[in-house]
Design a protein that fits this description.
The protein is an alpha/beta fold. It contains nine helices and eight strands. The two termini are 24 Å apart. The structure holds pyridoxal-5'-phosphate. Pyridoxal-5'-phosphate binds next to β8 and α9.
Length: 227
Amino acid sequence: MIKENLERIRREVPEYVEIIGAVKTRTPDEIKELIDAGITIIGHNYVQEAEDTFEELGEYSGRVQWHMIGHLQKNKINKALKIFNMIQTVDSFGCAEEISSRSEKINKVMPILLEVNIGEESSKTGIEPDYRVILETVQKISLLSGVSLKGLMTMGPLTSDPKLLIPYFKNTRLIFDRLNSERVDNLNLKILSMGMSDSYKIAIDEGSTMIRLGTILFGARHKKTTL
Ligand SMILES: *Cc1c(COP(=O)(O)O)cnc(C)c1O
């Protein structure tokens, strides 16, 4: 089923759209199945869980890119740098600076996305969607040598009707385009990570270039999670 699901979605969405398999709560066998089906990016919410999965998957681990899509705690940054190819959930200059200084020490440049809390929800992480604040943050991040800002990521508020997400996705896209129109040295944002199982079509219509899918690939989640 996982294979059919991925193939169907791959056919459905434009070629430029990258698909991330959001694997929280999934077993190593399920993840292997997804990798065999051709997924190229795995998204993880927790550093510790990602580390365990990385070990359990053996040679499979090296066949995919690993993206951090959950909130990153400061004390997990060093571990995260070892596993992940991208951290999508940078929500402040301070966070970017912290990642940068640690990755400099190991001669790395970590690709990152700035997470925008587009629904301004107190329960969610991400930078507030105030353009001035975002621009200033992006300008400062662009001067850091241990990280490379590749784009924006957003979750959008939890809703029963995905159509209600349209204005939020539109707004994120506007911020994305506006940032790209500024003449910030070293800045060329290419990735707009938005859209999940229930909202990826809408997100793509609004300009998403990267969708993060769990349920629609694997079926309902096994355990209760806080996400
Ligand atoms: C779980 C998760 C997803 C995927 O959610 P589904 O609704 O299962 O597709 C996407 N992004 C993030 C950040 C997640 O935590």
